[in-house]
């Protein structure tokens, strides 16, 4: 089949656009979408240090190559790669990630669950089973990567999340009835390095092709513990529906983008301090309205009453200003307590 834009042989057919694209026009289309995502969200600015969360898989390897091509000649932006070894036997040797980064001349650093937490994901699964393995892993991995990023003055974290990942997240939140996540803007809590997702408008199969065309040595194996996750079920449902309705994933991502601007104005992300590890502690923080109408008294301009918060609840220390420990522990420490209990 010939390319829809020239007479060269096509390497891919985009069902949602109806176009056959050769390698040259595929690369142009792919990189234009990624650049548009960066431009629309103003994700990269002069003076940034961008770290790619490099697992050694196709998505992270592709985003590293793309950002290296995009930023390689810029002197005002620094690029590096960070790899976390969760401790999963037989799954992704960190040396693969190192070789990929070194092949592009990108600085690379690594850390392990075993060194940081004195426990591996294999040990967590042995104690707790696979039911919540993705949740435990996600919390611990992100906390560790965030700490490493701060040590290297990283200002942006680049992830290889693609269109499929984003669409799945929107559908998962809808199925769970999680209005808060659906309407929460893409911003990070105080103390967390902001995340960027250049491939959020690009289907997974196109990210895979881009990786095959430009990167050698990446790993195609999936995590052995991911099969029990809700995301796996949603992926199957969404892929089946998208086969019959090709633009579905784009529609879901567009919906998610629209909903993120509808968060209620009386809430925002604040922070306290974890009394155990000293990390900043994201939490929901109530804001007072500047002007509210007291429905009972009919008084204009009255301040909203501050609701009493029962001791021991999630919001007990919501007004902690971070000057001293707030009597709570962060999610990372909670997860470590949970997984070390066993059983």
UniProtKB/TrEMBL annotation:
Keyword set, alphabetical order: ATP-binding, Hydrolase, Nucleotide-binding, Transferase
Annotated GO biological process: tRNA wobble position uridine thiolation
Basic and acidic residues bias spans: 285-294
Pfam families, per database record: ATP_bind_3 (PF01171), TtuA_LIM_N (PF22082)
Binding site for ATP: 53-55, 59, 84, 160, 165
Coiled-coil portions: none
The 2-thiouridine synthetase TtuA-like N-terminal LIM domain, residue ranges: 2-27
Chain segments carrying region Disordered: 285-314
Any one GO MF annotation of this record: hydrolase activity
GO CC aspect terms: cytosolic tRNA wobble base thiouridylase complex
Domain tRNA(Ile)-lysidine/2-thiocytidine synthase N-terminal: 50-211
Top-rank taxon: Archaea
Stored InterPro entries: Rossmann-like_a/b/a_fold, TilS/TtcA_N, tRNA_thiolation_TtcA_Ctu1, TtuA-like_LIM_N
Record's compositionally biased regions (Low complexity): 295-304
The protein's name: Adenine nucleotide alpha hydrolase family protein
């Amino acid at each position: 089949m010939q390319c829809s834009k020239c007479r060269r042989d096509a390497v891919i057919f985009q069902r949602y656009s109806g176009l056959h694209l050769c390698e040259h026009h595929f690369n142009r289309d792919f990189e234009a979408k990624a650049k548009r995502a960066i431009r629309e969200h103003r994700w990269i600015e002069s003076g940034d240090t961008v770290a790619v969360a490099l697992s050694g898989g196709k998505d992270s390897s592709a985003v590293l190559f793309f950002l290296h091509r995009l930023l390689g000649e810029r002197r005002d932006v620094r690029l590096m790669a960070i790899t976390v070894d969760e401790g999963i036997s037989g799954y992704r040797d960190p040396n693969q990630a190192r070789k990929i980064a070194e092949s592009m001349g990108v600085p690379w650093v690594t850390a392990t669950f075993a060194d940081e937490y004195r426990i591996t994901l294999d040990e967590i699964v042995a104690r707790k089973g696979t039911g919540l393995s993705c949740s435990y892993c996600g919390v611990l991995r992100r906390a560790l990567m965030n700490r490493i990023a701060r040590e290297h003055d990283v200002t942006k974290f680049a992830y290889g999340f693609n269109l499929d990942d984003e669409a799945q997240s929107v559908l998962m939140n809808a199925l769970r009835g999680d209005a808060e996540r659906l309407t929460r803007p893409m911003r990070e809590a105080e103390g967390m390095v902001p995340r960027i997702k250049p491939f959020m408008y690009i289907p997974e199969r196109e990210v895979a092709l881009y990786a095959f065309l430009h990167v050698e040595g990446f790993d195609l194996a999936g995590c052995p513990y991911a099969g029990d996750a809700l995301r796996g079920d949603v992926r199957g449902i969404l892929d089946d529906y998208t086969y019959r309705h090709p633009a579905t994933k784009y529609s879901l991502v567009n919906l998610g983008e629209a909903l993120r601007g509808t968060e209620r104005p009386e809430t925002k992300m604040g922070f306290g301090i974890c009394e155990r590890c000293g990390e900043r502690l994201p939490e929901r923080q109530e804001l007072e309205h500047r002007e509210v109408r007291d429905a009972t008294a009919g008084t204009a301009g009255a301040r909203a009453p501050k609701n009493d918060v029962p001791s021991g609840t999630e919001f007990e220390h919501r007004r902690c200003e971070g000057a001293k420990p707030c009597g709570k522990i962060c999610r990372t420490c909670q997860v470590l307590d949970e997984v070390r209990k066993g059983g």
